[in-house]
Each structure stands twice: as C-alpha cells, then as structure tokens.
Amino acid sequence: MTLSEFSLAGKVALVTGAGRGLGLEIANLLVKAGACVIWAKPGTA
C-alpha cells in the first residue's frame, strides 16, 4: 500500500513527542495522509 492509497481524511491524530525524531516523522506522514494532527511536544503548554 502506498501513501497515495492511504487516506486519513476526516480523522484526528494526537502525536506525542512530535518535536523531533520519530514522533516528528510520524506526524508529518499523518498530515500527508490527510489527518488533522495535534502536535504534542515536551515543554509546550
């Protein structure tokens, strides 16, 4: 399955640790798949 075949349009995802590394990459892929992403990273309030 390619990313173009995978749609998360209308879905919401909460990604913790999205400030860098794996969390950041996962959040970016979810956005590319059409999800509305809530980015959570340490030090933000």
Write a compact overview of the structure shown.
With 45 residues, this protein is an alpha+beta fold. Helix content is 27%, strand content 22%. The protein has one helix and two strands.
Shape: elongated
Described by strand count, sense and barrel closure, the largest sheet is:
2 strands, parallel
Gap from first CA to last CA: 37 Å
Contiguous uncertain segments of 5+ residues: none
Mean pLDDT: 87
Helix content: 25-40%
Characteristic key phrases:
two-stranded parallel ribbon, 27% helix, alpha+beta, 2 strands, 45 residues
Protein described:
The chain is elongated. Strand 1, helix 1 and strand 2 (36-40) form a beta-alpha-beta unit. With 45 residues, it is an alpha+beta fold. The protein has one helix and two strands, in the order βαβ.
Topology, please?
Layout: E1 12-16, H1 21-32, E2 36-40
Parallel strand pairs: 1-2
